[in-house]
Specification:
By secondary structure, the chain is mostly helical. Helices cover 79% and strands 0% of the residues. This is Tetratricopeptide repeat protein 29.
Length: 328
């Protein structure tokens, strides 16, 4: 009977028939409790299906209960699904995901210690599941919870684990997030020099591994640090490198984003020189600014180099007039 009910549940795949599919999964679950000849395999499968239904409906705690039962019934066993994955590895994946969801809610409610305990369980499941990507993500989430709880050194230690895993996987997205989180913590501790050194290592590693996305992330992070501290020349250089690296990825939104950073840094860089001319309040600086105003049609050129010839001619004329007046 169980197998027939399960096949009926599979039949109703259309969104409008979801309620009917769920009904047959519930019937499967009830029937599975009565099956005693398969070592609990059908019961485990039924718990997995009910866990997915509860999760989809937003009943996260109830989903966790079903996935925990699924895990307990499959622990140490070699049952596999049609894709070749063991039931126990699937249980680990489901529990990693559901524990992470539960922890997110706890963090929203400032329940930091409870979230940490839940994410430790998520990391345990990720390790048992044997999926390095999952383990890296679990470590990253746990580090964030420790940081929110004010335990920054523990957070940094776990982030280092996450970085090692993402590096082994050549996971650019994961590396970018882990390095960004580490940099944020170090900056908050006032360790700016250590942060830039750390991100410099990230940048070199990305270059050596030909990870263009990671190179973009590293350059943007470094550019932001220098930009926030008024070191606009350095910021400009890193944002420029980020823009060039982004172009190799054929990712238009990313290219546009790095162009924005590049433009902001260039504006800040030019602003310093521009303001120095304003503050000088002398005829040469005024002439310089007027020359730039008249010739700045190419905004990609440093405006303070435009009109240089005119300014030099003006200086020469002033000096010549002064010399003539002296001898006369």
């Amino acid at each position: 009977m169980y197998d027939n009910q399960l096949n009926l549940a599979y039949c109703f795949n259309d969104p409008e028939d979801k309620w009917l599919s769920n009904y047959f999964y519930e019937q499967c679950f009830n029937t599975a409790q009565l099956v005693k000849i398969d070592g609990g395999k059908r019961e485990a499968q039924a718990h997995a299906n009910m866990g997915l239904i509860c999760e989809e409906q937003g009943h996260v705690m109830k989903a966790a209960e079903h996935f925990e039962a699924f895990y307990q019934l499959t622990e140490g066993l070699t049952w596999k699904d049609e894709t070749g994955h063991t039931y126990n590895s699937l249980a680990c994946e489901h529990l990693w995901r559901i524990y992470t969801l539960l922890a997110d809610k706890m963090l929203e409610n400032k329940e930091h210690q409870q979230a940490i305990k839940t994410l430790i369980k998520a990391l345990k499941m990720a390790k048992e599941g044997g999926d390095m990507k999952m383990e890296g993500e679990a470590a990253y989430c746990l580090s964030l919870a420790y940081n929110f709880a004010g335990e920054q050194q523990t957070a940094l230690s776990i982030l280092n684990t996450s970085v090692k895993i993402f590096t082994a996987l050549c996971d650019s997205a994961g590396l970018g997030r882990a390095y960004a989180a580490t940099a944020k913590i170090l900056v908050s501790q006032g360790k700016v020099a250590e942060t830039t050194e750390y991100l410099g290592e990230f940048m070199k590693a990305a270059e050596n591994a030909h990870l263009s996305q990671s190179l973009v992330d590293a350059c943007v992070l470094l550019g932001n640090i220098y930009n926030e501290r008024g070191k606009y020349n350095e910021a400009f250089e890193y944002f420029s490198r980020a823009s060039e690296a982004a172009k190799t990825l054929n990712n238009l939104p990313l290219v546009e984003e790095t162009k924005t950073y590049y433009g902001i840094a260039k504006a800040h860089k030019l602003m310093v020189a521009f303001n120095s001319r304003i503050e000088a309040e002398d005829p040469v600086s005024l002439k310089y600014l007027l020359a730039w105003k008249e010739n700045r049609s190419d905004m990609c050129t440093d405006p303070l180099t435009v009109g240089k010839t005119l300014v030099m001619k003006h200086i020469s004329a002033v000096l010549s007039s002064t010399v003539k007046s002296f001898f006369l």
